[in-house]
Amino acid sequence: MTTTEKLYEGKAKIIYPTDNPNILLSYFKDDATAFNALKKGQIKGKGVVNCAVSSALFQWLESKGILTHFIDQISDNEMRVYGVKIIPLEVVIRNIAAGSLCKQTGIDQGKILPFPLVEFYLKDDALGDPLLTKDRILMLEIVTEDQLQILKETALKINQYLIEFFNLCQITLVDFKLEFGLDQEGKLRLADEISPDTCRLWDQTETDPTGKIMDKDRFRQDLGDVESAYQKVQERVLKQLSVIS
Ligand code: TMP
Question: What global pTM score does this model have?
């Protein structure tokens, strides 16, 4: 791990500068939080899993023509990324009802949605990342109407590519969260991470509703076997990446 002074430390990652001002180093921690950091803990080996899974999925998306901040993975829990100015929106895409969608709408968990739902939340921990409306996004001048449309279209494309990839791993992509940023040239790039921390992933080889959960819900709901579930995701994702590349 680098000893350089950190640029930024979040709940799950630390960002370090490099010799090149356009390139940053993202270090994936084992620290885990849920419910806006009300619940805190550690998931042993999580940093390694999330770095490996994110690297694999960014490479898969790049191969499909999606611009990401990923450059390369330089150690088990470090990747080099392009520095981007993060757009303060958490873009959530849902294929199957779970989590806050069920709590807020009363829809049954596990219901296949009639279309992939794209939602925007304000990336602001102090405010608890509230769900936004289109008009609120425009009123806050976070992005323009055109940029919002591009974000939605890009999120839907990413969803299709990720569903395809995870299906090959015998994993159902229930929902997930994305973050985007603008690079030096003003180009939109997918940033942050795509991992069992930021996705709901259900094992297609399991029938038991609790047994099939392979993501951070195991930590959020104290379901146990968190580490082994994360490991299983990593194994399947890396195996699949080696098959297709
Ligand atoms: P939710 O059902 O709690 O709104 O979560 C939707 C998806 O977004 C789920 O896959 C988990 C992910 N997520 C994050 O990555 N970070 C967050 O802070 C939250 C609340 C959800």
Answer: 0.97
